[in-house]
Design a protein that fits this description.
binds calcium ion, globular, 8-stranded mixed sheet, Nucleoside hydrolase, about 300 residues, alpha/beta, IUNH, Inosine/uridine_hydrolase_dom, about 20% strand, 13 helices, about 40% helix, glycosidase, 12 strands, two-stranded antiparallel sheet, single chain, binds beta-D-ribofuranose
Length: about 300
């Protein structure tokens, strides 16, 4: 199995993404690193412990950066509920977080397996950027960073910016400029993957606690997506980033240059993607430009079905 560290800000789609990763025998989840984002850090850390308990998985989890590098904090409690995991009957964490900081853990795991570690990042990139600053050798040592964030098109949190990019544009810029092998799974594909009422029912029909909790989280999410974006359910953003590691063939990839806008103004946090190669700049990422959504959901459902 492929060694991975999951870095994110649960957040209900992060939790579903992590269930998928923890349920997949092809991934060896070495650690979970929590970052500020959808809700404040204390909650994303707790939610990491809750998600591990829900998955029946015993893995170390770590608290990371509690705020963006430069800008003021942005959260998304309106989308994810005040706690980040709006569901009843969630298990308590079975263990406390590790004393080691998330950034130190990322560096340690990266150095322990040169060329072998994949980081699946589903939140603001603050932890990853700090790790790259503290350990300049890390970008060369990682197998890959796969990030849910950005968009080849426009944003969801501002007209120009996707939430994870907007929540720490400077960190995203550090990662995109680092030379690390990088894949970006942005809104242009994730907004095609909708947890429709039929799909939510299929999760509920699994008859498991993980299925029931996933269904409950995605039902809360659907309300927001219906009202805000006129969609028939919530978008499965973060699970698609895990799927991109498990089943890269389900997405279509194009290498291109991506610039992250760090000037404050209407485009703050935009990922400007050179889709047509008009700048002549060398690609710094492979960007998802297409997705087989039915196959993705089918495999997601089958994986979650294996969680008790
Ligand atoms: C991203 O923002 C967060 O609210 C979600 O968890 C996802 O990672 C989508 O823009
Ligand atoms: Ca997230």
């Amino acid at each position: 199995p492929l060694p991975v560290v999951l870095d994110g800000d649960p957040g209900l789609d992060d939790a579903v993404a992590w269930l998928l990763a923890l349920a997949s025998p092809d991934l060896d989840v070495r650690a979970i690193t929590a970052v500020h984002g959808n809700v404040p850090l204390a909650l994303t850390v707790r939610n990491a412990g809750v998600t591990l308990a829900l998955a029946g998985a015993d893995r170390p989890y770590h608290a990371g950066a509690d705020r963006p590098l430069v800008r003021g904090a942005v959260t998304a409690a309106a989308v994810h509920g005040a706690t980040g995991l709006p569901a009843q009957n969630l298990p308590d964490p079975t263990q406390p977080p590790q004393a080691e900081h998330a950034v130190a853990a990322l560096i340690r795991h990266g150095r322990a397996q040169p060329g072998g570690l994949t980081v699946i990042a589903t939140g603001p990139l603050t932890n990853v950027a700090l790790a790259f600053r503290l350990a300049p050798d890390l970008p060369e040592l990682l197998r890959e960073v796969v990030w849910m964030g950005g968009s080849t098109a426009l944003g969801n949190r501002t007209p120009a910016a996707e939430f994870n990019a907007l929540a720490d544009p400077h960190a995203a810029r550090i990662v995109f400029d680092s030379g690390v092998p990088l894949r970006m799974v942005g809104l242009n594909v994730t907004m095609q993957c909708i947890a429709t009422p039929e799909r939510v029912q299929a999760l509920r029909d699994l008859g498991t606690r993980a299925g029931a909790v996933s269904a409950e989280l995605l039902t809360f999410y659907a309300g927001v997506y219906r009202e805000r974006y006129g969609l028939n359910g919530g978008a499965l953003h973060d699970p698609l980033a895990v799927a991109a590691v498990l089943w890269p063939e389900l997405l279509e990839w194009t290498a291109m240059d991506v610039q992250v806008e760090v000037h404050e103004g209407p485009n703050f946090g935009r990922t400007t993607c050179d889709v047509y190669g008009v700048t002549g700049r060398a690609p710094n990422a492979r960007v998802a430009v297409g997705v087989d959504d039915p196959a993705f959901f089918d495999r997601l459902l089958r994986a979650i079905a294996t969680v008790p």
